[in-house]
C-alpha cells in the first residue's frame, strides 16, 4: 500500500460498523492493518469496510490463540477494537496488559456509550447513540417524527472517522516522544461533536430547537429537496442572497414579490408550495440542464446506482471497483503521498505469524490444533 501512513502497523479486532470503518480509513491511507477474525464471524462478501487488509483467524478461547494476538500486538503501532467495555479484558487482551508488552502501543476503543457511565454496559445501535446526544432530534421535518440518517452520524461520522482521527493524533504523539495510550471513543460524544454548529447557533438565538424549522434542516424553501415530473428529486441550497437571486432568475421569479425578503419565515410555507409546483412541472434532467453547474447551488439527488456514473464523479474517479464491487474511492487526496488503489482483503496467516517470529513447525502445530486458520 501507498499513502501518508505507510510504515504504520495496526491490529484490528474484527467486528461490524465503526471499528471496521476506522480500519478501512487507516488502510486506505497506507497503514498495514491486520484483522483478527473469529471463526464463524459475520462477513459481508465484497465488503468495502474490509478492503486492503490482511487477516488471520484466531481461536480466542485458547491460550495459544491469545498469545498469537499478543505477539502481533507487540509488532504493531496501534490496536482498534469495538467490543463492549470489559470484553478485551476478559479475553486477556486488555490495554494494561498489551501496553505493558508494548509501551508505544496506541489502543483505540470504539463504543456507543463510552467506557464509563451508567449506560456503558448496555446494548445499543447508532440510532440510540445519536438520540442520546441530541443529534437525532434535528433529523426530520417540521411536525414529523425524527428520521434515522441511516448509520452515518453515529457509526461512521461520529464513530469510525473520529477514532481514525484519534489514532493518527495519538500515533503522532508517540512519534514525538510520547507514550502509548488508550483512546475512549464514544459515538454519543462523536455525534454530538458533529452538531457543534447547531449548538453554537442555538446559543446565539439563531436556531430553533425543533426539526424542520431552520434554514438548513428543510425549514427554508431555498434549502430543500423537491420532486420532479418524472418522480425523481433535486436538491437546492441557495442560502446566500446572490445565489437566492440567481435561483429566482432561473425560475422566472425575479419579479415575484412573494419571493422578496428571503428570510421572512412567515412566508416560507407558501413559497415552498409554489416551488413544489414549479419543480414538479419538469423532469430532473430538464432541471439539470437549466441549473447544474451554476451558482444556484443545485444538484440532482442520485441513487447509489446513478452516483458512480455522474460525469463529475467519473471525471474524478470518485468511485472504483474492487473485486467487482463498486464502492467509494479513498478520500481525501494528497499531492505528494498519494494513496494506492484499494485491494481485496486476503487471509495471510502464515506470513503474519512468520513476521512475528513463529517458525514453520510452530505455525503448522497451531493450524493443526485449529488455533489459527
List keywords for this structure.
single chain, alpha/beta, seven-stranded parallel β-sheet, three-stranded antiparallel β-sheet, 16 helices, 38% helix
Task: Give a quick rundown of the structure.
The protein is built from 16 helices and 12 strands.
Radius of gyration: 25 Å
Q: How would you write the strand order of the largest sheet?
A: 6-5-4-1-2-3-12
> Overall pLDDT, averaged?
96
List the total number of helices. 16
Q: In whole angstroms, how far apart are the ends?
A: 24 Å
Description:
This protein is of the alpha/beta class and 373 residues long. It has 16 helices and 12 strands. The chain has helices at 18-28, 63-74, 87-91, 95-101, 126-132, 152-175, 187-194, 196-203, 215-219, 241-250, 268-279, 284-291, 304-307, 311-316, 349-355, 360-368; strands at residues 9-13, 32-37, 53-57, 78-81, 106-111, 181-186, 223-227, 233-237, 298-300, 319-322, 325-328, 346-347. The strands form 3 sheets. Strands 6-5-4-1-2-3-12 form a 7-stranded parallel β-sheet, with helices on both faces. Strands 7-8-9 form a 3-stranded antiparallel β-sheet. It is elongated.
Which helices and strands, and how do they pair?
Layout: E1 9-13, H1 18-28, E2 32-37, E3 53-57, H2 63-74, E4 78-81, H3 87-91, H4 95-101, E5 106-111, H5 126-132, H6 152-175, E6 181-186, H7 187-194, H8 196-203, H9 215-219, E7 223-227, E8 233-237, H10 241-250, H11 268-279, H12 284-291, E9 298-300, H13 304-307, H14 311-316, E10 319-322, E11 325-328, E12 346-347, H15 349-355, H16 360-368
Parallel strand pairs: 1-2, 1-4, 2-3, 3-12, 4-5, 5-6
Antiparallel strand pairs: 7-8, 8-9, 10-11
Helix pairs in contact: 1-6, 5-6, 5-7, 6-7
